[in-house]
Design brief:
The chain has 219 residues and is of the alpha/beta class. Helices cover 28% and strands 28% of the residues. It has helices at 41-49, 91-97, 102-108, 125-138, 155-168, 181-187, 207-210; strands spanning 2-12, 15-26, 30-34, 56-61, 64-66, 76-79, 143-147, 173-177, 190-195, 198-202. A six-stranded mixed sheet has the order 6-7-8-3-9-10, sandwiched between helices. A four-stranded antiparallel sheet has the order 2-1-4-5, with helices on one face. Strand 9 and strand 10 (198-202) form a beta hairpin. Helix 4 (125-138) packs parallel to helix 5 (155-168). The radius of gyration is 17 Å and the shape is globular. The two termini are 33 Å apart. Bound molecules: adenosine-5'-triphosphate (ATP). Adenosine-5'-triphosphate binds next to helix 1. Keywords: Amino-acid transport, ATP-binding, Nucleotide-binding, Transport. Residues 3-219 form the ABC transporter domain. This is ABC transporter ATP-binding protein. It comes from Mesoflavibacter profundi.
Length: 219
């Protein structure tokens, strides 16, 4: 699938957050969004998902305009920045609810074996996040939006999640954003920098310095 969003305009209390954003994502291409705190990355993902209304946004899938909220079309799965699972839900039940195989998950993350019968709030914050990311990546959809999938996750799990993202991307378009820019740069096939309300397609990593997102000492 080819997903495009164009001409996004978002204002809060007369403050311009997004103004003229364009973004394209497609199957077999991992799309990364980088940008400073508060530049509008989460808002953009919410607008794509359909849970946040903007003054204007034009969405096309395979060149056809989509007029209703994307989440109503079953095309999209969205990992928000904060936990979305209810605290008291049993983990086995959660996997059943999402129709995702616990057995496959356990094979990839054997450390979680004893958690099957626990409630989700029994887990550490990072462990809970691993489960949430896994569920979202394995939910039927054509487009996956991941808001900070690498935050608070230990390196060994980040590597496993990156492998799953790459596998899933063979059949789904993936858009992700994270402040772990090294991970984003490593996994993304194309990167947009969100700055001053607009997206800029990054052709060379050095541009991230000229746009004042990174200083070379940190690369
Ligand atoms: N409901 C809201 N009402 C008013 N302002 C909001 C609202 N939601 C977000 N904003 C503002 O919109 C701007 C963009 O927020 P957003 O959460 O998209 O940033 P972000 O790039 O994801 O930041 P971070 O990397 O820190 O998570 C911020 O200045 C924020 O204060």
């Amino acid at each position: 699938m080819v997903f495009e969003i164009d001409n996004v305009e978002l204002y809060f209390n007369k403050k311009t957050i997004l103004n003229g954003v364009y973004l394209k994502a497609q199957t077999n291409t991992i799309t990364g969004i980088l940008g400073r705190n508060g530049c509008g990355k989460s808002c953009l993902l919410s607008i794509i998902f359909g849970s946040l209304s903007s003054k204007y946004a034009l969405i096309r899938i395979n060149n056809k305009p989509i007029t209703k909220a994307l989440y109503l079309t079953n095309q999209v799965a969205y990992l928000p920045q904060f936990y979305f699972t209810p605290n008291q839900i049993n983990i086995n039940k959660l996997f059943k609810l999402y129709k995702v195989s616990w057995k496959d998950f356990e094979a990839k993350f054997p450390e979680f074996k004893t958690y099957k019968s626990k409630t989700i709030n029994y887990l550490s914050g990072g462990e809970r996040r691993v489960i949430e990311i896994y569920l979202i990546l394995n939910t039927p959809s054509n487009l996956v939006l991941l808001d900070e999938p690498f935050s608070n996750i230990s390196p060994i799990y980040i590597e496993k999640i990156k492998q799953i993202i790459k596998r899933v991307n063979k059949t789904k378009a993936i858009v992700l954003t994270d402040h772990s820019y090294n991970e984003v740069i490593d996994i993304a096939d194309q990167i947009y920098l969100l700055k001053n309300g607009c997206t800029k397609l990054i052709n060379h990593i050095k541009e991230l310095e000229s746009y004042n997102y990174l200083s070379f000492g940190t690369l």
